[in-house]
Amino acid sequence: MRKLVYFIGTTIDGFIAAPDGDLAFFPLTDDVVTFLSSEYPETLPVQVREQLGIADAANRRFGTVIQGRATYAPAIEAGLTSPYPHLRQYVVSETLTPSPDPAVTIISGDVTGKVRALKAEEGTEKGRDIFLLGGARLAGSLLPEIDELVVKIYPVVAGAGIPMFGTGFSPLSFRLTGTRTLDGGMALLSYER
């Protein structure tokens, strides 16, 4: 069975973006770029992959990406309606209809049911895990379905912003399965349910 993996960058104090959604304050050092390019190239949008010369890099872990409407909005604003053409793309939105791109499927109804159906798929590409991309509200609503957390903790304290999960108090235990620290100070922590 495929896993739903919340692969997310956060500050030391647990924020995934500034209060207005901006990400520019996260330090994107050479070691982070090298790490993502080699270990998780499919998590980089197409324009970044092209800039890094890895446009044709094989997907190592994920075959599908699911993101919320707010996470998808900057790509649309930049005229990039298919930011992850190397993955099957889903955007969760009640208002975005029709899809701005034939390669992007809009999920507007039973998100949990769709995630469960995607997790149950089998086959070569379909067997790859599902990348949950940003969106505190979406991550909060899917928390019971998240099988793994891969958290990139950047050496920054924001003080305020958008939290990793937009949900009420509902403790759920995960087990630490891996740690890695890059030279620039980013720590990568992996947890499984």
UniProtKB/TrEMBL annotation:
GO biological process assignments: riboflavin biosynthetic process
InterPro entries: DHFR-like_dom_sf, RibDG_C, Riboflavin_Biosynth_HTPR
Highest taxon, organism lineage: Bacteria
Domain Bacterial bifunctional deaminase-reductase C-terminal, first and last residues per copy: 3-187
One example GO MF annotation: 5-amino-6-(5-phosphoribosylamino)uracil reductase activity
PANTHER family cross-referenced by the UniProt entry: 2,5-DIAMINO-6-RIBOSYLAMINO-4(3H)-PYRIMIDINONE 5'-PHOSPHATE REDUCTASE (PTHR38011:SF11), DIHYDROFOLATE REDUCTASE FAMILY PROTEIN (AFU_ORTHOLOGUE AFUA_8G06820) (PTHR38011)
The name this protein goes by in its record: Dihydrofolate reductase
